[in-house]
Structure formats: structure tokens, C-alpha cells
Design brief:
The protein is of the alpha+beta class. It contains eleven helices and 32 strands. The strands form ten sheets. A seven-stranded mixed sheet has the order 15-16-17-23-24-29-30, with helices on one face. Strands 8, 9, 10, 11, 12 and 13 form a six-stranded antiparallel sheet that branches.
Length: 493
């Protein structure tokens, strides 16, 4: 039986999820000073659930402290109050290495791992243009990538194309607020320069689409298999074909481009990992999930009435002729230790180069952490920030299960992913072995891309700085009990 869970990051172009629970009967919204404030009953719920399922539940504030904070929330939006409440709760657990909250990010009011989404945000998840843009030297606006199968990709936009105007407005005359407003529309008219400097005009319509997660794959210089992934789907349909090609050529070096991969479904990550590994690793420990002590000991009673339904509202499983609940799941370390399960015939890998950036997160980091003890890996970091000498990934060893609360879904930081050596404290990101500039004008798989060029030549001329292999340590304080904008994992019963 498979249940999907989620891990995600916030971004300008990504939205999320929503669904059900009630705590106590309500009353009408409180009216003060002629302003109608949102009901606060669900604020109690998010605290009660956090006490039992939040990974760092032992560091939450006491009820008196939380109630005092709760009384200070005066927004007319229930969602905003709940979001603020979750942010407040997420800032108590401190990382002893940094003395900052584990869930600290530099964006005010946003937790690094814990989040809440609405049903409308879920519906809009794959309803868009599929276009990511970035500036070059603070001037030119370039296509960073167009998600395969999206309206942008279908229209022919690709990495490195320069956008000249949006809906008739020249780029230099558009500020950040106007960008957001333009992308909230259902249509975009773009003037851009394609390869060869030819100016083109296209119109994009915002639509629902099924994205392809694989941007590109190819064989480079005869013995390097290259694959670029924008995210991890529930299941890859093309991996068998791709790795059969790699196997037929006896490819020894893999270049896995995860520079913009913010995560996705753990089932997809597992599938890729099991294609990569050689036969000798089959049935060895791949990864472990560590939950808090309350969950591991089966004492999270609040989950007893929280049934598990699929998106159509159908029960996922039954226990003794009743619908299965989140309480019925096994959160023990033994049950959540996963082994490699070799897929396909590819068996010749000797070294893996992984291209990352600060956007690389969640399942992408899990892949790096899980393979590192078994296969020689080199991390190449890319950045557009000239001051960033050593690139680190986002830093998300934390996973979530969506808990329905009222009309929302709350993604608490619930478990930590560690590898066979119990390493997984990369809360500040995984450091790269080599850092270089991200040349947006080079397409994916282009051998003149500085990151790919380094993989092929192993020279330091194009880079910013080299660093010896970083060690991903595990803090003793959290060995026993172990979060965009998206990681979604399998629960196996």
C-alpha cells in the first residue's frame, strides 16, 4: 500500500495544497472595535497536533505562552492567523551549531519546513505557464528553464532566451510587484530573443498540464551519462529507457543535474536511486526516517480520528473493517528503514557528479546523502552570486505528512531523513566540492556549461573556489529523535 506525503519549498511560481478536521464547536467570529476577526478555534488545533507530531515537539512553548501569543493575532484572514501561528511554533527549536531556529529563513514570517496550504492552492499547483525567469547582471531577463510539457515549453521557450517585453511593457520598466501581477493573469504576451538573436513574439495561456520531470538526457564525450531533472514525480516513465542506453554504452560516470530540483515525490527519488546503484548494493540500507518519540511509541492519540483518504475522498486502507487512520501507521525506526531495490540492467557506475545550487532541496539532497557512503560522488555548485564562494544546497533533511485541519492541509516538520551511517544534519545545506557560475545562456547538457565542463576536464580554471569534501555530520542530541516550496514520500505498511 502506498500513501504519498509531501515536502515542499516556497517559490515565486509554485503553489501548494488543502482539506478537513474540527476541534470544538464554534461560535461566531469575535467582533472588536467594529472589525471582524477570523475565528481562532483552529489555532488550538495546530498547537495540539504540533505537540504530538512535530519533530521537535519537546521544544514547543507551553500552553500558557502559546495562548498569550494567540491572543495577539488580529487578522481578518483565518489562513493568515494559522500561518502566523505555525511560524511562531516553528521558531522555538534551536540548532546548537548555529544557535538559530532549525526553521529559520531570511524571509520574514516563513518557516523553512512547516507550512499550510489551501485547496485552491492545490488546484493551482499545475495550472500555470511553466516558466522560470532570472536576471543576468541585474539587467537582462532570461529564461532559466521552461518546464517540459508546459505552455512555455510548448511555445518554444528554452533556457537562455532573453525576454524583451511582457504584455507590451519593456523589462526595464517592470518592477517586482508588476511582475507578480503580470504572472497572475491567464495570458502573457512575450517578446524575446531566441538563438541567433532572432526576435519573436508569442502568447502564453495559463493552463493545467502534466509536466515532464526530465529536462534532458544524453551521452557526453562517450563515457558520461547526463540527466537533468526539474523535480521527482510519483513515477518516471522514461528511466528504464534512459538507463538501458547508459547500460548499453557501459557508462562509468554519471552527471546528475539537480541545480533547480526542489524535491518532489520520494517514490520518484527512490526509483532513480535504484536505477543508479550497482547490483552489489542491492538490499543494503538506503535511508531511514526518524520520527519523534511520541510517534515512534504509538502515543499520538490525536491521530486516531484522522482518516487517510485519497484525493477523491476514498479510504486508502482499512483496519478491522474500519477506515485506516494516521494513528494506524507504523512510525518506528525499524519500519521506516528502507533498503536499496535494484532496478534495470545498468551496473557500471564508478563516479557520480551532481550539479546543485541553493535551490536544490528535499529529495535531491536525500539522494546525495544516501549515495555518498557507497559511491564516489562530487558535488558541483552553481550560483549567480559572485560573492558566494562555496555553494550550498537549501538544507532540508526534514519530511512531512499532510495533516488535514479544517479546510487546510498543514505540513509539519515530522521526520528526519538519514543515511546508512545516520548522517543527515545538513540543515544548513550540503556544501559543494567545487563552485562555479551558473551560465544561464548555456542549455542543459551543453559541454561549454562551466559545471559540465568541470565534470569533463576536472580542472579548476573556470571555477570560483575548491573545497575538500564536506562531511555531513549527525548531532548527538538528535540521534534518537529525528521541511517549498515540494518532498512527497511513500508510506509503506
Amino acid at each position: 500500500m502506498t500513501i504519498f506525503r509531501t515536502l515542499f519549498m516556497l517559490s515565486c511560481f509554485c503553489l501548494f495544497y488543502g482539506t478537513l478536521i474540527s476541534c470544538k464547536k464554534d461560535s461566531r467570529p469575535e467582533v472588536i472595535e467594529n472589525k471582524t476577526y477570523a475565528p481562532t478555534k483552529l489555532l488550538d488545533s495546530i498547537y495540539l497536533y504540533a505537540q504530538e507530531v512535530y519533530y521537535w515537539n519537546q521544544q514547543l512553548p507551553d500552553k500558557i505562552t502559546y495562548n498569550k501569543y494567540k491572543g495577539s493575532l488580529k487578522s481578518t484572514s483565518e489562513f493568515d492567523n494559522l500561518n502566523d501561528g505555525l511560524f511562531y511554533l516553528s521558531q522555538f527549536a534551536k540548532n546548537p551549531l548555529t544557535e538559530r531556529p532549525y526553521e529559520f529563513v531570511r524571509a520574514e514570517g516563513i518557516s523553512k519546513y512547516t507550512s499550510i496550504i489551501t485547496s485552491q492552492q492545490q488546484d493551482n499547483l499545475l495550472n500555470g505557464f511553466g516558466l522560470s525567469l532570472t536576471t543576468l547582471n541585474g539587467k537582462s531577463l532570461l529564461v532559466k528553464y521552461a518546464i517540459p510539457s508546459s505552455p512555455a515549453a510548448t511555445a518554444g521557450l528554452k533556457r537562455g532566451d532573453e525576454i524583451l517585453s511582457i504584455n507590451g511593457a519593456e523589462i526595464e520598466n517592470i518592477n517586482n510587484q508588476e511582475y507578480k501581477k503580470l504572472f497572475s493573469n491567464n495570458k502573457l504576451r512575450l517578446s524575446y530573443l531566441a538563438d541567433g538573436g532572432q526576435q519573436q513574439l508569442i502568447e502564453l495561456n495559463k493552463t493545467s498540464y502534466i509536466p515532464s520531470s526530465i529536462i534532458d538526457y544524453q551521452i557526453i564525450s562517450n563515457n558520461y551519462g547526463y540527466i537533468s531533472l526539474i523535480n521527482f514525480p510519483t513515477y518516471f516513465t522514461d528511466l528504464d529507457k534512459i538507463f538501458q542506453i547508459f547500460a548499453s554504452r557501459n557508462i562509468e560516470n554519471l552527471i546528475i543535474d539537480l541545480r533547480y530540483n526542489t524535491g518532489g515525490f520520494l517514490s520518484g527519488c527512490d526509483q532513480l536511486v535504484n536505477h543508479i546503484i550497482p547490483d552489489r548494493l542491492n538490499n543494503k540500507v538506503y535511508r531511514k526516517e526518524i520520527y519523534n518519540k511520541t510517534l515512534q511509541e504509538g502515543k499520538a492519540d490525536i491521530l486516531k480520528n484522522k482518516t487517510i483518504l485519497d484525493e477523491a475522498g476514498t479510504p486508502v486502507f482499512f483496519v478491522d473493517n474500519r477506515v485506516g487512520t494516521f494513528f494506524d501507521l507504523d512510525y518506528s525506526l525499524k519500519h521506516n528503514t528502507y533498503l536499496f531495490n535494484k532496478l534495470g540492467s545498468y551496473n557500471s557506475v564508478k563516479k557520480i557528479y551532481i550539479i546543485v545550487s541553493v535551490e536544490t532541496s528535499s529529495a535531491s539532497e536525500l539522494l546525495i546523502n544516501a549515495l555518498n557512503p557507497y559511491i564516489e560522488t562530487m558535488i558541483i555548485g552553481v550560483t549567480n552570486d559572485q560573492s558566494q564562494s562555496i555553494v550550498r544546497t537549501f538544507g532540508k533533511p526534514i519530511g512531512s505528512i499532510a495533516i488535514p485541519i479544517g479546510p487546510f492541509k498543514v505540513y509539519y516538520a515530522m521526520f528526519q531523513n538519514v543515511n546508512v551511517n545516520n548522517q543527515g544534519d545538513y540543515f544548513e545545506g550540503i556544501p559543494s566540492d567545487w563552485s562555479t557560475m551558473d551560465d544561464i545562456r548555456k542549455d542543459f547538457g551543453d559541454i561549454s556549461d562551466p559545471a559540465i565542463k568541470y565534470c569533463l576536464t576536472k580542472t579548476s580554471k573556470a571555477g570560483l573556489q575548491k573545497e575538500s569534501k564536506g562531511t555531513i555530520k549527525t548531532q548527538d542530541a538528535y540521534k534518537e529523535s529525528a521541511q517549498s516550496h515540494l518532498l512527497i514520500k511513500d508510506l509503506r505498511k
